[in-house]
Amino acid sequence: MAFWTYKGLKFGIKSVKFPKENDFYDGFISSIKIDLQKCLNLMEKSNEPKCRECEFVCPTKAINLNTEPALKVIDADRCIFCGLCIDVCTDVTGSADTRAISYTTELDFEILPQNYAVDKKVFKKSLFVKHIDTGSCGACESEINALNNPYYNMHRLGIFITPTPRFADVLLVTGTFTERMAEVFFNVLDNIPKPRFIVLIGSCALFGGVFEKGDYKFNSGLLQRDGTDLQRKGTDLNLSPLENENVIALPHCPPNPFEILNVLLLIKNGGLK
Amino acid sequence: MSHSNYKFLGDYEFIWGPVRKGTAESILFNFLTSGEELHNLEITAGYKKRNSKSILAGKRNLCEQILLIERISGLHAFAASLSYCLSIEDFFGLTDKGHVNIKILRMFFAELERIRNHIENLSEIAESTYIVVPSALYAYYAEMLKQLSQKFLKSRYLMNINYVGGIKKNLSLKDMENIFNSVKSTVNKVQEIIKKNMETKSHIDRLKTTGKIDLKAAKQFKANGVAAKSAGISLDLRIKRPYLLYGELYGETNLKPAIFEDGDAFSRYMVRIEEIRQSLNILEYCYNMLKKNRFSFTADYLLSRKELEELKEESTRLQPADKDTKYGKHGFGYAESSEGAIFCYIKDFDGNIFKKINIKYPFESNYKLFAYGTKNTMMMDFNINEASYNFSVAALDK
Ligand code: SF4
Ligand code: SF4
Known about the structure:
By secondary structure, chain A is of the alpha/beta class. Chain A folds into 2 domains: 31-104, 2-Layer Sandwich (Alpha-Beta Plaits), CATH 3.30.70.20; 127-269, Rossmann fold, CATH 3.40.50.12280. In chain A, 23% of the residues lie in helices and 13% in strands. In chain A, the strands form 2 sheets. In chain A, strands 3-8-7-6-4-5 form a 6-stranded mixed beta sheet, sandwiched between helices. In chain A, strands 1-2 form a two-stranded antiparallel ribbon. Helices cover 52% and strands 13% of the residues of chain B. At the A-B interface, helix 1, helix 3, strand 4, helix 4 and helix 5 of A face helix 2, helix 5 and helix 16 of B. The structure holds iron/sulfur cluster (2 copies). The site of one iron/sulfur cluster has 12 residues of chain A, from helix 4 and helix 6.
């Protein structure tokens, strides 16, 4: 055992400096952007789009070329980074230099605080996080787990995962929100004392990701639920699962650990509104 | 729950799940225990059933289907998409037409996924025996592999890479060299930890004899993957029914299947360690073959969209006649993932997608085996035992 203590010390500190510095690793991507100067439709605005390839190819309907303002043509919250639009854009425009769509490498994504009631620092000390899987593929869990490894080391920032909802400040939700997990979800949620936050992790939890069926019922995430078919046990409430809750939606499939950490830090340090 | 057959005086039941510790996937365990000893275990899955099959049938094209298949179990994304792509290629009669370099590249990434999953599992096992430093070190190196994947393939979990007839990411020989060298140095460091860990008695002792299954039980429950290999059964598809270039590989190099006899957590641990070593050898073989075959860019071997369209058309034309045969026209493919075989059987191509896709992961039978193997074991060892199987609930629930 003494050997491992020695070995651990010798290994030294490998953690990133984030959030003090944005020292992301090589190849880190956090968003997708369209270059208005290069896109065949957007460079000279006409009523008839000349090319709709990316819009057609996107598996999650993240692209709508008619969106105003044009900067929001790609809804980054629905993007799963499959790269299909980038591939067709390269095909259409002829080369990687001329294509209009590309990934961005800075920490650059929108988080969507919903129903936000608080704007100051709510939690004075450490932040305790409970996780619930409502039908994920396992990759989102793996990314949350990664926050415990020495590279991200979220403990250094005073954020901990707790096994019980009673001590939790934040509920991390992954997965598509399946029918059988709905009741369990409310059970866990009701056991978390207020003030509390819900963070929806990954495209699945937002809108179902690649599993989306478009009927806004089960398996299509939580953001679009109105709750009409959800009955909370023991009550006659017919609430949308997110009503009156502080919700943050974190897109991508799976979101990078840096992004998850960023959201947890924003909650911990306040200043989200 | 049918605990009654196993109940001793003083035994009590308790349930754990579906929401469990840390960041675990949702599954329910119902224990019958005397406090220290576990007498029976009932496992209830299905909480996260996403009905992938019906959603797959509603997709617009093969590409979308592949994206979904990768996300049935994200940690086995490459093996699953490979299995599906191989079955599509089988359906279209492309199996022998693919360029040898594409086969090599696919082997390369499949082995990379295996190495990453095994290292992550070593981290979990170390954690379950409370030796935190090695656990953290393993986790760190697994993270390095994910970052490497992100850098070269734009996906930490090797998603969005496989496609019918090839792989989608354009890589040069230089890239492959960089990937290989980084993996090699990472694995070498991991092997140092493994070596030192072998001398950590408190770690090894807790693994030995834990969750022991014998050959008979392994056969009865149709054990698969690592669990089978640990009990002396070799079902490794790479050797038994070689696909891609594995046949040549196992002929040329003297790689032997990773087989252990004891069927305990330690054997499963050893299988993983041996497979990490072998996979690194396979990566080296792949890299050398690429050099030998004068590989320069992946893009050289990609099936163009036009070619694929032609194939699809041809196949739709062929279909009606074939429908008269007993099973109709179908495709079959498989790949050995880090946890065992992933089989894929497809049929009913409607010109855009396959309407019927049966994909089978190795976890179903392993869960039954696991429940059986926990009888009369110590509650204290439950975590170690579970970690040593490295289950994916997502793949079980689909
Ligand atoms: S990367 Fe994929 S999901 Fe994202 S916008 Fe492009 S096509 Fe859509
Ligand atoms: S968002 Fe993507 S990575 Fe996360 S659980 Fe869903 S499919 Fe998996």
